[in-house]
Amino acid sequence: MKINKLLLCLLSLLVFVSCANDDDYETVQVASAITMSVAELRNSTSVLPPQNISESGKVYVKDHLILINDKKEGIHLIDNTNPANPQKTAFLKVLGSNDMEIKGDYLYVDSYMDLVVFDISNLTEIKEVERLEDVFPYYAPYPVDATYINYNTCPQDQKAIVVGWNIKEERRKIEDNPVYYDVSNAAFSESFSSSETGQGGSLARFKIVNNYLYAVDYSNINVFDISNLNTPQKKESVEAGFDIETIFNRGEYLFLGSMNGLYIYDIKTPAVPSFVSEFRHVTSCDPVVVDGDYAFVTLRGGNFCGAINSSLRVIDISDIMNPVEKSSYTLEEPYGLGVKNDKLYVCDGDAGLKVFDKKDVPSVKLLETYDVEKAYDVIPLANNLIMIGDGTLYQYSYLENGLELVSEFEL
To answer: What is the pLDDT of residues 226-248, one digit of tens each?
Structure first.
C-alpha cells in the first residue's frame, strides 16, 4: 500500500513538472540536407526506360516528340506520332533539370549549375556530348514543409550540393540554436525563331533565337552562342533585374516575366541583350506571351508569389518604350498561357483551362472553361493544343468555338 502511494506521488510530480515546462518546448519540422558530390552529379546522367512522373514540370514540343520535365529529376520523352495514343519512349535522367530547348539534333538542358548538351539524332541512343560547368547560379531546393533547417547537415565546401531534404518532426526547447535556421526568413529560392527549334510553353526559362540560347536565372540573362550546336560558347551574362521567372521571344525582343514586372530587351546585337523598357506590377508570379501590339501577363498571388489576388493583365506594347496596361481580369490560380489567332488560352490551376476571345483586344471575353486538375502550361500548335496538368498530358483539336479532347495521357 505504501508503494502504491509512493508511485502515485511520483506520477503526480512528473505530471506537474511536465506541465510546468511544456511552454518551454515546441514541436517543429526540421529539414536535414540530402547532399550529393558535384562529381557524382556530373556522372549521374543516363537514359532509362519509361518512368512514372513524380512532379510535372515544363512541356516542350519538337515535331512528333513531346518532352515533359519531371522537376529536378529529368525529362520524359513521348512519341506523339499519333496524338490520340501518345507513347512514352524513354526517361532522360538529368538531376537538377527544369528547362530545355532543342535546335536541330541537339537538346539543351540545365542541371543545377551546368548546361548539358545531348545528341538526340537517334532517340534510341541519346548521347551527352557537352557539359558547360558552373554557368548558372546554384540555388538550393527550398524545404517547403519545414520550420527549421539543420545547417550541420549542409555541405561545408563546394565539392557537394544540396539536392533535397529529409524533414522530420522534432520536439525541442524554445531557444536560439546556432545550427537551426528559421525557414520563414529564408532568402534563397528554388532553382527556367528558327524552324529547327521546337516550342516551349510560357513558363520557359530557355529560349533559342537563331544562333543564340538565352537562359534566364533569377537576375540574369545567360547568353550562349550555339553556332556550333554541339559546342555552345558562354558569352557575358546580362543583369536583368530581380526574381526573373520566364522568357518569351517576339521578333527582335525578349520579354522577361518577373515577380515585380515585365522587362523588355532588344537583341539586335544578339550576344548583348540591351534593356528597352519595363512595366511594373504588384509582386506576383508572372509568365508572359506576346501577340502583335499586346502582351498578356498572368499574375498569380499567394504562397511565395506575394500578392493576394490573381489576374490576367493586357498590356499595350505598340510603343515598346512605354508599355501601358489596358485591361485586367480576375483569375483563380493562373500559371501558363498561350495565343493562337483570336484565342487566348490560360491555365488557371485547379480552376481549369480557360479560353478567351481576344479579337477585340485589349478587351477579352471568356468563352469556355475546361475542367482539368491543376492546369499548368499550354502550347497552342498549328493543328492541336497541348496542355500539361498534374501528372497528365492533354491534347485538344480546335473547333470553331472551342476545343475537342483528343487524348488524356496519364504520365
So the answer is: 999 999 999 999 999 778 889 99
What is each CA distance from 332 to 173, 238, 389, in whole angstroms?
40, 34, 16
CA contacts within 13 A on the Cβ side of 223: 19
Please state the φ and ψ torsions of residue 342, each to the nearest 5 degrees. -95, 10
Consecutive H or E run containing 74: strand 74-79
Q: Which amino acid is at 364?
A: V
> What whole-number distance in Å separates Cα of residue 98 and Cα of residue 82?
26
- Confirm if 45 and 116 have CB atoms less than 8 A apart: yes
Q: d(Cα 366, Cα 358) in Å, to the nearest integer?
A: 9
Cα 162 to Cα 43, 174, 216, distances in angstroms: 16, 27, 21
| CA pair distance 145, 33, nearest whole angstrom | 13
Span between the terminal Cα atoms of the chain, in Å: 68
Q: Is the dihedral of CA 228, 233, 237, 242 positive or negative?
A: positive
Asked whether the beta carbons of 221 and 170 are under 8 A apart, the reply is: no
Chain-centre distance for alpha carbon 202: 10
Please return the burial class of 225, using the count of CB atoms within 10 Å of its CB with bins 0-12, 13-18 and 19+.
middle
**Residue 359 identity:** K
18-39 pLDDT tens trace: 444 566 777 888 889 999 999 9
Q: Would you say 373 and 390 are in contact if contact means Cβ atoms under 8 Å apart?
A: yes
Nearest to 235 by CA among 135, 109, 137, 138: 135
Element (H, E) at 220: strand 220-225
CA distance 299 to 289: 12
Q: Could you tell me the pTM of the whole model?
A: 0.86
- What's the CA gap between 60 and 37, in Å, rounded? 30
Name residues whose C-beta falls within 8 Å of residue 297's C-beta, 6 or more positions apart in sequence: 257, 262, 281, 286, 287, 288, 312, 313, 315
**Can you spell out the DSSP letters for 288-328?**
EEEETTEEEEEEB-SGGG--SSEEEEEEE-SSTTS-EEEEE
